[in-house]
Amino acid sequence: MTHDEIIKALFDETMIGNAPAVLELTNKALAEGMGPDTILFEALIPSLEEVGARFERGDYFVPEMLIAGKAMSGALNVLRPLLAETGAETVGTFLMGTVKGDVHDIGKNLVNIMLEGAGFKVIDIGVQVAPEKFIAAINEHQPDILGMSAFLTTTMPMFKVNIHEITKAGLRDKVIIMVGGAPVTQEYADAVGADGFASDASTAVRVAKDLIQKKRALVNA
Asked: Where is the B12-binding N-terminal domain positioned along the sequence (predicted)?
């Protein structure tokens, strides 16, 4: 297969979530001397972006996104150490957790896959995350963005509690805060003082990139 044929096949197989084929093609591409960044930026990321676009148009649904994400995840496991060796630039560091009282993580995990696919370094600190755990993780990992997820209306108030505690710890201006989850709205995100909100995984990637660019532009201004 030529370079272009491998790239096209990787794009197509990722879109339909054919994990074994994606893995096989990734290894084949590497064996033929293709760089890990080429595989990521020319095939996998464009494919996942197309999955996201189809989801937004209503042509794809959550199961299709999960399957495509999983297929890409397998390829990323192979590429991640190689990308680290080449010193490939990450878009930014994203710290992610579901708030205290909430154990839902399907949406969070899907967002993680999409973010990783878009070139973010993702640190997932799990579910039932108390404010002090978020604060400790911000101090430890110095993320560009903190993402908080809540699936229940009863746990949504934890956004405000967490932001209050992060502010009290003197970290509010050091991190961009994004919130999301099934019952969450833009209005609610604004009310609790978050910097960004996304209703689905595809939008989360776009919003995260925009917020990082704006913050860096301000810092460099």
From this structure: 1-91
